[in-house]
Amino acid sequence: MPYRWTENPSETELTLWPHQSMTPAGFSWFIGTTALLLTLPLFAVLGTPVAWVLMMFFGIALFGMWKALFANKRHMSLREELSLSDDHMYLAHVPAKGPMLEWEANPHWVTVNLRKDGPVKNYLTLRGGGREVELGAFLTPEEREGLFAELQGRLSET
To answer: In degrees rounded to 5, what are phi and psi of residue 59?
Structure first.
């Protein structure tokens, strides 16, 4: 699951992140394989002016693929961090771009809600401190359901 609980002596921390489908090694393999496959048609026209025109288009295609994958990687830097102690609960939503969004409340008054009729299936929210905030919007419905049970258990321990 794309989240991890960390136990510290004074608090518990939860870090959530979107699914990461490509590792750095996978990125290198993909770009290398794409470059190799794009050069194969060049062997048929090697030594002709057509080769230069094709190389230009293949270079543009490879550059476009590189930029798209890096934009996707930058978007994947999104994360949410929740810290829970006996008397304080803090949530930080760190987007890829823009300011960090923060929420805090007393955990004794926080309720965890999993709504079936929300904007998405298994809409997970935290309510407390006069506000209701969404948690794990990038998780799958099954992951939000599992996280809901874990959060309820952790809150009942405080």
So the answer is: -65, -40
Query: Hey, what are 12's tokens?
Result: 């518990």
147 and 96, same domain (yes or no):
yes
118 & 85 share domain = yes
What stretches of the chain show up as alpha helix (H) in DSSP?
A: 24-39, 49-75, 141-157
Between 31-35, 74-78, 79-83, the lowest mean confidence (pLDDT) is in 74-78
Based on the fold, state whether residues 14 and 84 are members of the same structural domain.
Answer: yes
Q: What is the dihedral of CA 74, 61, 30, 1, to 10 degrees?
A: 30
If one counts every other C-beta atom within 10 angstroms of the C-beta of residue 105, the result is 19
Q: Is the dihedral of CA 52, 58, 61, 63 positive or negative?
A: negative
Confidence of residue 73 (pLDDT cuts 50, 70, 90): confident
Q: Which residues pair with 88 in a beta bridge?
A: none
How many residues in the chain? 158
Is residue 42 within 8 Å of residue 58, measured between CB atoms? yes
pLDDT of residue 22: 78
